[in-house]
């Protein structure tokens, strides 16, 4: 198959490319950075250098593809994240429609069943809606749980305060996923033949409460009493603003975290759990976390 991947050589797209190339597929990787071309070609893939903001570039790149993997690259320079998702998602939809691609795998998120109240994740919901409107295309939305790598963002707080404070925590349940498990699921889906229309596949590696997660991470870094404490939305907002985050990003994060605390984020996940969980558990990721923690 001729498969186009977005996400450059990120934590999902690179292992995804390696798996698909090993299966004999012809892979094109889209990257906005020209300096990634040699590394992409070293994988025996074709580099397509350009911007997802350019619909004509996308159309030209995917016009001969059998399948496309679509993700929205993180860009926190965008103050309106939902609008950013909508803009890139609209370009994807236009390019897929005009190029005639028949198979699409879209990286979405748990919570994307909701059209409000989840902050940034509303962007994933909107992209799902746009792709679902495509005719004669088989679309799979990979609704991934919270990515383990998000925990790296807690390192400074752990080092400075010795505790994690968020407006979700304690006994709140978190659906965790490792990027390698997302890549494996994406590889499976891209190689499947499906009837036209859309379907959802949840991708998760582990389920733990915030407190359980903190205990495991704490043991790995020599802080067995590490706690993940639940604080109010107002207190969390105050801390984020003081840290220098833009107000619009803070508002999105508060809503996202609050939806985990309320259970709204996971309500559809609980009804449609993966048949098979991913391989990487919190205990496994704790080793990765410790290695990064000890370097900082």
How would you explain this protein's 3D organization?
With 296 residues, this protein is of the alpha/beta class. It is 44% helix and 19% strand. It is built from twelve helices and twelve strands. It has helices spanning 13-22, 37-42, 55-62, 81-99, 121-132, 155-161, 179-190, 210-220, 233-242, 247-262, 267-271, 282-295; strands spanning 2-5, 26-31, 46-49, 67-70, 103-109, 138-144, 146-147, 164-166, 173-177, 197-203, 206-209, 228-230. The strands form three sheets. The protein has a seven-stranded parallel β-sheet with strand order 3-2-1-4-5-6-10, sandwiched between helices.
Q: Spans of 5+ residues with little confidence (pLDDT < 50)?
A: none
Helix content: 40-55%
Order of H and E elements: EHEHEHEHEHEEHEEHEEHEHHHH
From the N-terminal CA to the C-terminal CA, the straight-line distance is 43 Å
The secondary-structure class comes to alpha/beta
Approximate shape: globular
Quick one: how many beta strands? 12
Strand content: 15-25%
Q: What's the arrangement of strands in the largest beta sheet?
A: 3-2-1-4-5-6-10
* Tally of individual helices: 12
Radius of gyration: 19 Å
- Largest sheet, described in full? 7 strands, parallel
Name the average pLDDT. Answer: 97
